[in-house]
Amino acid sequence: MTDATTERAPLGRRERKKAATRQALADAALRLFLEHGYDHVGIRDIAEAADVSTTTLFKHFPGKEALVFDEDAELEAALIAAVRERPEGRSIPGALREYVLRTRRAKGDDADARFTRFIELVENTPDLREYERRMWMRHETALARAIAEEIGAPAEDPTCRALAHFTLETRFLTCEKADVGTVIAGAFELLEHGWNAAAGGARG
Amino acid sequence: MTDATTERAPLGRRERKKAATRQALADAALRLFLEHGYDHVGIRDIAEAADVSTTTLFKHFPGKEALVFDEDAELEAALIAAVRERPEGRSIPGALREYVLRTRRAKGDDADARFTRFIELVENTPDLREYERRMWMRHETALARAIAEEIGAPAEDPTCRALAHFTLETRFLTCEKADVGTVIAGAFELLEHGWNAAAGGARG
DNA sequence: ATTAATAAGTGCAACCGTTTAACTTTTTGC
DNA sequence: GCAAAAAGTTAAACGGTTGCACTTATTAAT
């Protein structure tokens, strides 16, 4: 999903053109994907729809899947903040559960039909799901370090890393019949109790 | 890895030839991969080394990565058995931890140098790691059902599914400095305590 | 035994995502 | 102004994968 409202620096003629090309590519890609399905749209189609060559496309995006997703620098910051600035008396996995449940993309609530279709596209396209998962999982190390710092454990503490890993994984728990919220709750059932009971006692 | 010792049914001339071709392909692939590295060996190289055409290769294996891995029907059975036939008084996550630690492929212990090189190949090749992960994770549903059945929970119980998912994931916890065993232990630290403390009390 | 149906294997050309290399344009620093 | 660096563009290729038309070998039915 592309969000063009995040510009601030006074960018020169060149960078403006670059951004425009990038945007044209992302727009064309999303439109075509929604129209014909991810697998039925080729890189060459997208490039032509944006009136550039395929080589130019790959200068802007590292691969076909990346055409659909935006930067995620802010995502990691928010994730860490959820741990660091959690309300008084709330446990770390508790704060993480709240964050995951709050930021999970639900299909029905936001009135934006366009966004709903975007979510469906990702969920129904294995390639895109996999790509999103890899992107999301890259935050594991940062999250693990934040958790460890928060409780004064060594940066590589295995339990902290496991909590980080499992927390991030909750977003991709497969759910056939039960709805997503229930499955996530079930997962944190394990994690919260496990964290509280784990050796080391004085965990926040 | 290929293991030719699992034949039992009296197979006809045709299926014998088929198996031979398949074996030739797998052997050639592994040999070439170890020799030159996964990325430096093309499908066409492997096909030629096995003296078949690329079309034939894809009749036997669904993709390049599959040339390296064997069937995994037995793996799932063993996994389920670890839960079902666990010793008296041992908890389910306890049995799973024991199974995971026992069957994890350690580089140094088995005296087979060939096998060691095979493991290194997989671990150093992102494509192969990903493929192995996907194969392994396919057992999630079966494991979740076995766990649920074992404690008399509904087949789709979210906590059981979460335990299954997280258990399988332990094999792919990234570890930069700490060794694998320590990280797995840290993960089960969470899971075992969480499972014991989770609502439902009478869990075995 | 002949024959029809099935399945393995072949060769080739194509498709698709991605990369390379050569070339042109724009920007930047002197 | 001007040369060097950076970014943009293009056509061609590469590597995994698939489709198609065809040959050959095995099995099963008549």
Automatic annotation (TrEMBL), chains A, B:
Source organism of this protein record: Actinoallomurus liliacearum
Pfam families per the UniProt record, alphabetical: TetR_C_14, TetR_N
InterPro entries: Homeodomain-like_sf (IPR009057), HTH-type_TetR-like_transc_reg (IPR050109), HTH_TetR (IPR001647), MftR_C (IPR041347)
Source taxon at top rank: Bacteria
Domain HTH tetR-type residues, every copy: 19-79
The protein, known as: TetR/AcrR family transcriptional regulator
Keywords, alphabetical: DNA-binding, Transcription, Transcription regulation
DNA-binding stretch(es), residue numbering of this chain: 42-61
